[in-house]
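User: quick one, fold this
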Amino acid sequence: MGNKLKVSTNLSCDVLVIGAGGAGLRCAAEILEKKPGASVLAVTKVAHPQKSHTAAAQGGVCAVDPSDLHDKPIYHMFDTWKGSDCSADQNVVKKIVETGWDQLMWLENRGMHFTRLQGGALGKRTFGGHTSGFGSVSSFRAVFDADRTGKSMMDTCWQEAVKGGVSFVPQSVVTELLFKEGRCIGAILFKEKDGEFVSVLAKATVLATGGCGQVFRITTNCRDNTGDALAVILRAGFPVMDPEAVQFHPTGIVGPGILASEALRSEGGILRNKDLEPFMEKYAPKMKELAPRDIVSRAMESEIRSGNGVLNPDHNIEHVWIDLRELPDYVHDVKLKEISGFFKTFVNIDPKKELCPVRSSNHYHMGGIPTTEFGEVQKTSDEIIPGLFAVGECASASFHGFNRLGTNSLLELFTMGKFVGERVVDYIKDGSLTELPKEAGEVTFSQFSKYLEASGKGNIGVIREEMRNLMTAKVGIFRKGNEMAEAMESLNELRKRAEVVALASKTTKMNQDLHQRWELDNLLDIAMITTKGAYERKESRGGHYRDDYTERSEEFDYHTLAYMTEYGKVDLGKRPIDMSIFEAGGEHCEHFKMIPRKY
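Assistant:
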């Protein structure tokens, strides 16, 4: 079977962008602005770039308005550092925050629509953990387009990329990176619709494939977020950083797990337990519902653990309520129209009149492919891979550390897209294409041949669901060493079962079984390194919370680098946390040491 698989087409370009969501397209747009006429090939897993997961982002994007008399970039930097549980890289925090407003204006000047007040000023919201005066009061820092901010941003970046002349390859995935003398020179793609493998030689390759939320049973992530680039990086022998840093969003709609934006709480929504008591004051006395997401998620789960949850009869799952009944009609009908509609559509509840059931849902991966502040992919803490870049949720520079503040993801997406685009233009200036290596595709063909030749019994979907249930139960919001050890044993067994499952069809063309089998391997890879990273980090930090090690420990003041070339054998390294703002010793530097995290 292995001899039957081959590269059917050879392509070449200046820049190969794998992932055509907001981060990938913002990067592509920057490249084409700085170097008109460059050939940029953008690969998307979905049928059209506008179906990318960026479009699902709802509530807003934060940046400090220079005309705001009450806000300053240093406050936003502090909030991000504190919110990260003192594990973001301060050089990256400074770089992104200081350019945020200019990049918002880049979007607006290219047609992005932001909601404005009656007098014409930009509307602004507060989000959890965003403050002025180093935590003194909540800051109204997030601008937005109603509850469709990600969709507006996606449309704008797509428009600019198309205008610049990007070529698109839809319904395709990256299966292998190509290297020559240590330099990345392109990739092997699998075109799912045609069932063909394509080689692409490129002067620079950018990974922008998004998150890996499908590792968990209940997630706000779309069906395609299966950690593809992370798995490809691992197979190439390179690390994934902070895989244990996983965010659970407090308010997933019970049943589908769909996101009910933090904007609901910023507009005045109240979380209540089964006795209708507002409980957040017990957990975050000052910021209450607007504490960072990891704190609110644990508060909700703690209420449920202590018997204060409500059993949902339709889904047999416990939850708490979010009370939106006091919100003005204008909020329901205009500012948050789509989110209110989700409750009506998916759980048949009118949020104007009834309490809405919510429970935490997996949302975001703060970890990812380790990069410099310019998006250059690292193979060690101080060594980059020439020609290879990463941006967006699949990458980790690290702006978010171990907990992401709401609205900071969209900010990172388009600012880092700009920075990566600039660095790519500089890199390809003197670059040239090379010949296709003789071994190109061998890793891919070996992998896919095993899928097609397997003849044993089993069901891919069943194994996938068992893995997702396992990760939710034992590597979720609350974690314990013994349970994670059990999870790793179970993951090894699931991998063995998956290896022998026979596919219903042996064709490569439009074969959903084949596609899902490949995704299953990606998910199992990410699940294993996530569990191993969490098991070895014997402390609680941000979204990583251990019932058996409940305090943050200075022993773990570093980023995890996880390598895995053989399944189940994970080697862990370290990357230092950058504390350059603190170490510079300037004004306000005392706010950027390892500080207590109270809200």
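User: anything notable?
Assistant: The mean pLDDT is 95.
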